[in-house]
Design brief:
It is a single chain. The chain has helices at 10-13, 28-52, 63-71, 80-101, 105-122, 131-138, 147-168. The chain is mainly α and 178 residues long. Helix 4 (80-101) packs antiparallel against helix 5 (105-122), helix 4 (80-101) runs antiparallel to helix 7 and helix 5 (105-122) runs antiparallel to helix 6.
Length: 178
């Protein structure tokens, strides 16, 4: 005899939520487009800053940070502490390795590994910042590189991301400042 009691939905609760292209409320695609537009504008601004600052674009280490911070704003590595701290810590490691061992591929490789450890230890893990020690060591960057473009650029990107994300969804970024 079939039971008239409601069936438990326990089995359906265990399934992973299904993701659709448009999301549950149909706004996922729109959000992705908003994030993509934000990334486009941020990279364009970076290109303009490189041009007027007379710094080759290849020496400005923020393209992948832009993708992370604007495309995955909920990620721990996309929060301001990781963004700013990761770039500063990894650049400092690169400068230390350059001072200790000079310009060489082995020093650049070791600098990336040490930067990974330093970012982990300081709670500032930001994977895109791992390019900084390579740039510093291989291009023999001066200590001022830490402040401009790295420090200033990371702070400006944080401010830009704050404004951009909060235009679309007030209070959506960051999850925490520090």
């Amino acid at each position: 005899m079939p039971s008239s009691a409601p069936q438990s939905s326990a089995s359906s609760d265990r399934r992973a939520p299904t993701r659709t292209f448009f999301g549950k409320d149909g706004r996922t695609l729109l959000l992705w487009c908003w994030q993509g537009l934000g990334g486009t504008l941020a990279v364009a601004a970076m290109e303009i800053a490189a041009y007027f600052g007379e710094t080759p674009l290849a020496l400005i280490p923020f393209a992948t940070s832009i993708v992370l911070v604007l495309g995955m704003p909920e990620a721990e590595a996309a929060q301001p502490r990781a963004l700013v701290g990761g770039h500063l810590v990894s650049t400092l490691v690169g400068l230390a390795m350059l001072a200790a061992f000079g310009r060489s591929e082995p020093a650049a490789a070791a600098a990336v590994g040490l930067a990974m450890v330093a970012m982990r230890a300081s709670g500032t893990m930001h994977p895109p910042a791992a390019i900084n020690p390579i740039i510093v060591v291989m291009e023999a960057m001066k200590p001022g590189f830490l402040l401009v473009p790295v420090g200033l650029g990371a702070v400006l990107l944080s401010l830009y991301a704050f404004g951009w994300h909060n235009l679309a969804r007030r209070g959506s970024w960051p999850l925490r400042w520090w």
